[in-house]
Amino acid sequence: MRSKWQRFRESYFLFSFLRDPVAYISFTVLVILVFSAFAAPLIAPHNPYDMSTIDIMDSELPPAWSAQGNSAFLLGTDAQGRDMFSTILYGMRVSIIIGVGAVALQAFIGIIVGLLSGYVRKLDTILMRIADVQLSFSTYMVAIFIGAIFQTVFGVGDYEKVAIPLLILIIGLAEWPQYARTVRASVLAERKKEYVEAARVIGLSKIRIMWRHILPNALSPVLVISTVQVANAIMSEAALSFLGLGMPVTKPSLGSLITAGFEYIFSGSWWITIFPGIVLVGLIFVINLLGDWVRDFLNPKLYKG
Predict the structure, then answer these.
(1) How confident is the model over 221-249, as pLDDT tens digits?
(2) How many angstroms from the chain centroid is the CA of residue 129?
(3) Residue 102 is part of which domain span?
(4) What is the CATH number of the domain that holds 89?
(5) Cα–Cα distance for residue pair 8/24, rounded to 1 Å
(6) CA–CA distance from 25 to each of 31, 100, 277, 289 (Å)?
């Protein structure tokens, strides 16, 4: 009997993946970025959270290859004297956590709402109108409203402590209708098929039919959406940081690093914004490329083989 690993090695998924240079190069770059982010305490030469190791006299040093650069700071330093290379690694970890966490929340809410809306017809109109109302508010409007209230009521100090889970909650609550509508459409198509009718005939409950039979057959579009939504969530966090409602400067993300260095870009300290910006664009780019490949692979009408 073949093992799971043997079946995976012989699968059409792996065969197709290895035949597409864009897919495996993007995946390799993404793995390197994610590993670098979560291994930051081991890889980074400095700890941007340890104020005892930061000297304000080292602020705004250019990259090491510049004439005024310091070999101890490969990509230079920011306005607080933090090593840019180390801060980018730690900031990228925060951005990835927020992106993945927000998408997990979106998927959880959206899948439940989509299943109920598509299978329980009495709930369809109510749930979809709620989704329509939610879609009428942009992510940034919801984030500005909740973030501003929280900072006003609890203060900046407490906001710093809960910034990551709060941003996950804000972005997750703002984007769940994307999943709900997609899952609902898949459920409406699946509920008419013979295997669902057979499950009803033998007396299975609606919950069991939805979760054990319909949901596994409706997950393909969810996987496609998730790859795109991770990139969107990371961009949303960066945009909120630019507006002052994202991560605080003391706990940097890629977005807050770009924002913090924006006021220095015209004074000559271009590296404070440019390097985090390059990493952010690269991270989103490879995620979107992988999302495109997954979409094409799961759609036989689009995938050329």
Answers:
(1) 888 888 888 888 888 888 887 777 777 77
(2) 26
(3) 69-298
(4) 1.10.3720.10
(5) 16
(6) 10, 21, 21, 10
